[in-house]
Amino acid sequence: MEIMAFLVLHPGRRFTAEQIQTGLSIGRPRDLSADSIRRYMNEPRRAIGEHHVPETKAGEGYWLRDVTSDAAQMADLFEQARSRSSPADRARHLADGLALVRGAPFAEVPSGTYGWADTDTYLGPAMGRRIREAAIELAQLALEALDPVLTAWAAERGLRVWPTDDDLLELQLAAAWIRGVPELDVAWTHAEKHLERHGTTPSDRLRAAHHRLREETLPTEDHAG
Q1: What is the pLDDT of residue 34?
Q2: Which of 102, 77, 109, 82 minimizes the C-alpha distance to 1?
Q3: Is 44 exposed, middle or buried (0-12, 13-18, 19+ CB in 10 A)?
Q4: DSSP character for 223?
Q5: Structural domain tally of the chain?
Q6: I want to staple 118 with a disulfide (CB 3.0 to 4.6 A). Which of 54, 124, 180, 183 is the partner?
């Protein structure tokens, strides 16, 4: 499975058995010979077909054809959002990309594996940073439109990866503020408990944001709720 993940998350690239062995040994040495990698590749080839897992000739390297991933689709949607001038179009593509976020990238993989994911500029930390940027951008677009549901949803997607991020937590508070001070206070209590579960407390910046929102004029009733 890790070999397949390694290949699918490097679309369009070919890897020799030695390169695969080196990649998978980051963080934990692996005893992977060229013969063992070839045997491992036979199983997915039988399962999904030679079209997707082509037979490899000497010197060609291993690769996958017409196989994608949530990570690749998410990156493509974020890139499409970047190229759109209309806020509505940007928001749509950002939302479609964030809908693919289930948690921090590679958070559920076994300890000592997938070390290569932390060294590739496309994966691991870089992917997490892009998710945060997209979540903040979408939440801000939704906040400007006084849309509390989308603002809160976008911030929550980002918090799946960055659970103690002040920017994202402040946007959640702002989403509640659109609905009124009582909702804001409920959101503040929720934020305190959320941070406590992650072993910390609200920062001075977040406390100041909560206080500022309580003092600011609320949106018109036509928008609130």
Answers
A1: 86
A2: 109
A3: middle
A4: T
A5: 2
A6: 124
